[in-house]
Specification:
This protein has about 375 residues and is an all-alpha fold. It has 16 helices and three strands. A three-stranded antiparallel sheet has the order 1-2-3. Strand 2 and strand 3 form a beta hairpin. Helix 9 packs across helix 16. It is globular, with a radius of gyration of 22 Å. Bound molecules: coenzyme A. Coenzyme A binds next to helix 15.
Length: about 375
């Protein structure tokens, strides 16, 4: 019998060549390329191809893939009609999970998934990968208009995934700095080894379920506040704190009550999350572009990081990726409850890379358990209980 390790901490559940974390040194790489390099030089489209295929694409491979994504931005009429009937108060992650699983009804056929070497499987896997990655961002942005009672904007095929996302949210030509920041946010959130939602994707994928089931399951898993849901709590927390002078007392009160500080701590990192460092740099770039004017949200966040370092560093708790991403999305005019859905847009690349790796060398997941219940009980008739 094996030992039970709560949270499966330290348990290797797969072999993967997709990404690597050194939590002691604060390093993250995708396919061997440091995240800092990709954030500086790559794009979400290029990083997605790197994650999926293991190599940086040539110019023509990247152009082909980009064009394929753009030509699949448009969401089917029936899905749009269905979304019109969703309650306006519905959570964007529930909308996204429902829409993605509904999309699967239009693309049946996983029969080919039993032969990784067949051209039929390769085509199905490629087409579905493009379809899902292309449609995630338009779905999220469309919902913003639909829940307000308006028709959604049509996606624009002349724009990148990040630009089109911003365009479909605001209806305005995307600001170049904001589009660059969104693109970096998508790169940083695209993949992160075997986190809870990626593990959920592997488990579903191992049953040879459709990629739409795999991704909708992963979206549901990501929605929890201990995973992707943390970013939207960060801005709420900063608003609750108010001004920087109130931070120290607020943190001490939370810690005394044994409550968590959102956007802090990570199972893998014992130092500051490298993605939080990059986002912190983007926050500074944004502030500089505004002539040094610091929004109160940033001001409070910087003070919160300082106070948390003082109170929590000895436990290896530092800002994670969610700490700054929410602040940046808020600056882009994206509503708080959409932050996690944007995380899902990015992570669809990593989920699909892992799904492809799983089905290429598949064995169904079937872990064991340690039974703690009773045995050999005698059934008592209802009248005698
Ligand atoms: N605020 C305050 N204390 C925290 C903390 C936080 N955000 N994160 C961890 N700690 C403390 C724990 O209370 C624990 O203290 P103890 O040893 O005195 O009991 C210690 O640090 C170790 O934390 P633990 O809960 O064992 O870490 P974990 O690996 O199980 O959990 C998270 C990791 C991410 C779930 C956890 O850090 C958390 O809840 N963070 C806030 C939510 C968040 O931002 N999630 C997004 C992750 S990208």
């Amino acid at each position: 019998m094996s030992d039970f390790l709560p949270g499966l901490e330290g348990v290797a559940a797969t072999q993967s060549a997709i990404s690597y974390i050194d939590g002691e040194k604060g390093l993250l790489s995708y396919r061997g390329y440091p995240i800092e390099t990709l954030a500086k030089y790559s794009s979400f489209e290029e990083t997605t191809l790197l994650l999926l295929n293991g190599e940086l694409p040539t110019i023509s491979e990247l152009n082909d893939f980009t064009n394929q994504l753009r030509s699949h931005y448009r969401i089917k009429y029936h899905i749009r009609e269905m979304m019109h009937h969703f309650p306006a108060t519905g959570d964007p992650m529930d909308m996204l999970q429902t829409a993605v699983s509904s999309l699967g009804m239009f693309y049946p056929g996983t029969e080919c998934l039993t032969d990784p070497d067949s051209s039929e499987e390769a085509k199905y896997v490629h087409d579905m990968t493009v379809n899902i990655i292309a449609q995630m961002a338009p779905l999220v942005a469309m919902w913003e208009h639909m829940r307000a009672g308006y028709d959604p904007l049509k996606p624009r095929e002349d724009l990148s995934v990040a630009e089109n996302l911003l365009y479909m949210f605001s209806g305005k030509e995307p600001d170049p700095l904001m589009a660059k920041i969104m693109d970096v946010c998508l790169i940083l959130h695209a993949e992160h080894t075997l986190n809870a939602s990626t593990f959920a994707a592997l488990v579903s994928g191992s049953t040879l379920a459709t990629p739409y089931s795999v991704i909708s399951g992963a979206i549901g898993c990501l929605s929890g506040p201990l995973h992707g849901g943390a970013n939207q709590r960060v801005t709420g927390m900063l608003a609750e704190i108010g001004t920087p002078d109130k931070v120290a007392a607020w943190v001490d009160d939370k810690l005394a009550k044994k409550e968590v500080i959102w956007g802090m701590g990570h199972r893998e990192y014992k130092v500051k999350d490298p993605r939080a460092k990059i986002l912190n740099g983007l926050v500074k770039e944004l502030v500089e572009s505004r002539g040094g004017e610091l929004d109160q949200l940033f001001d409070t966040a910087i003070k919160l990081e300082e106070v948390c370092e003082d109170r929590l560093a000895h436990k290896g708790v530092y800002p994670n990726v969610d700490f700054y991403s929410g602040i940046l999305y808020a600056e882009m005019g994206i509503p708080n409850d959409q932050f996690t859905a944007i995380f899902a847009v990015a992570r669809s690349a990593g989920w699909l890379a892992h799904w492809r790796q799983q089905i290429n060398n598949n064995r169904i997941y079937r872990p064991t358990q340690i039974y703690t219940g009773q045995k050999d009980r005698i059934y008592v008739a209802k009248a005698d209980r």
